[in-house]
Design a protein that fits this description.
The complex is a heterodimer of chains A (327) and B (305).
Chain A (H helix, E strand, L loop, with lengths): L3 E10 L8 E11 L4 E5 L6 H9 L7 E9 L2 E2 L5 H7 L4 E4 L13 H10 L6 H14 L5 H4 L9 H13 L5 E5 L7 H17 L3 E6 L2 H7 L2 E6 L2 E7 H6 L4 H8 L49 E3 L2 E3 L7 H5 L1
Parallel strand pairs in A: 3-8, 3-9, 6-7, 7-8
Antiparallel strand pairs in A: 1-2, 1-4, 4-5, 9-10, 10-12, 11-12
Helix pairs in contact in A: 3-4, 4-6
Chain B lengths: L1 H29 L2 H6 L5 H10 L6 H13 L13 H36 L4 H15 L2 H15 L12 H12 L2 H16 L2 H8 L4 H38 L5 H10 L3 H29 L1 H5 L1
The chains are: A alpha/beta (327), B mainly alpha (305).
Amino acid sequence: MPLLDVQSLVTEFPGAPGGPGNRAVNEVSFAVERGKVLGLVGESGSGKSVTGFSIMGLVDRPGRVTGGRILFDGQDLASLSGEEMRQLRGRRIAMVFQDPMMTLNPVLTIGTQMTEAITAHEKVSRAESRARARDALGQVGIPSPEERLSAYPHEFSGGMRQRVAIAIALLHNPDLIIADEPTTALDVTIQSQIISEFQRLAETHNTAVIWITHDLAIVSRLADDIAVMYSGRLVETGPVSDVLTDPRHPYTAGLIGSVPSQNTRGTRLRQIPGMTPSLGRLPSGCAFRTRCDRATEACATVPPPETHEGARGFRCIHPVHPELLTQ
Amino acid sequence: MLKYILLRSLLALAVAFTVSLAAFFLLNVATDPAQAIAGEDATQEVVDMIRARYGLDQPLPVRYFEWLGGVLRGDFGESYYWHKPVAELVAERAGVTITLALAALSVTILIAIPLGALAALNPNSWIDRMALGVAVSAQAVPNFWLGLIMIILFAVMIPIFPVSGDDTWRHFVLPAFVLGASSVPAIMRLTRTGLIEVMGADYIRTARSKGFRGGALLRRHALRNALLPVISVLAVQLGQKFGGSVITESIFAINGLGRLALESILGADIPTVQMLIFVFAIVFVAMNLLADIINAILDPRIRIG
């Protein structure tokens, strides 16, 4: 049984009055095993962060989860009370948020913000919680952690703050960490350290990680599986090695093509034309068809169903794989 | 930090003296103190005698510096009307006004902050609309009118509180409510806006993700941040309560500084008016200073800068 099993998750935000809601997350299904890293990939506005918030039960009002099930360790999260969900958050499921500038409270010291995360779940002495906070800071590579506990967020650089946020997420050795672009604000060297830290964590503590990012290079280094999201839907899922070397969905192929690499040196970088459509004005059928050079009239009729191919899945009626076309 | 406080204190003192200077010249130009002391029907000889006796025949600047010299020694002169040192007079009456001002501020805090917080946590609900209604009406109703209505309602029709006076705590309930009500709209709206903004902040989501919800979340993470601007305005409002006491104390016949101010203005008791203006200015400026200092203590970002 996977640790986290998300089944046909739908998260809606109210649309125009009287009209249907806008589905930021639309029939999304995926699973994460203990000790595995899932890379959740997509452009801004594709719904990957909202997917993370939905699992945490932290979708901003007036948005809410309106369909599907989220099974964590066999338990349907929707059946939990507010207090039971609170006990889960921070202790068994932790999240690292995107913007390190805004995610720490400016008027509380780092020490306070870390120790309170411990005492929210465990009855421990002040001295012990402080010691654990200090160790967690050291673990993510913050120098002289003892002194830094008394510092305020504005006395830290962006990268340091992001490490503090990661340290907070690691405090309880959670079963699942949802990391929302945690390394975007960091230098490449620190980025590498953090990625190694997460890999170590997944191995030693058997922690499952959902790594939300738009950076395919990180996913290829870190993740076991990948789920590509476009306009609220998962368009392609599967093992990272398969999907990145041999994509099925034209969108995945486009993403891979727009990453600069050794092979494309000197040639013009490919890019996906157009921009992500807004949720209120999605095209009929396949949401990607207006930007897709393979689109036909058939793409405009219904959203493509999921095609399975071993451990892989994709939603496209004109997949990139040539052999499949002839079948 | 210390340097910051010292600098601000000096500035505050300068403001207070500027106010006293303006007040001194305005008062002495607008009224003839000698005439006021002697009374309407006094002969010119009596008026002249008084003018010479109180040193009122000296030029204005000389008299100001004499007054200032006295103030620096703690001597504010003698009341023309009560015939005793003004400082003594003010000291006798100050307790009542301080009590009233603090009670009024408590009323403001107890009504405005919970109401603002409830409105913020349930935006566009019936409670939010009710709070808005309270704010609009409290803003529109003048102090003296509310005072009279309260007396009619709770002292005459339903006699649970005394009509006037300042002997027991019961005497302070209605005036404190009336004086406090005037600050409710500003504080309530500020609390509401601040809390709505803070509840949408990313660090609140972080706190939730760590395992905080409900009251603990509000206490630890939301209120402190939301109340930062409220505290500064509260301190300023406390300063205004002293000025506002002039009307409220007159309506409820409370023997405090406000009533003393009114009486001394009507009696052209210039030394008393002069000292009261100085005291009100000092209180007002001191409250502003206090607000800055409290903010610096609560917000580490200001403390460093």
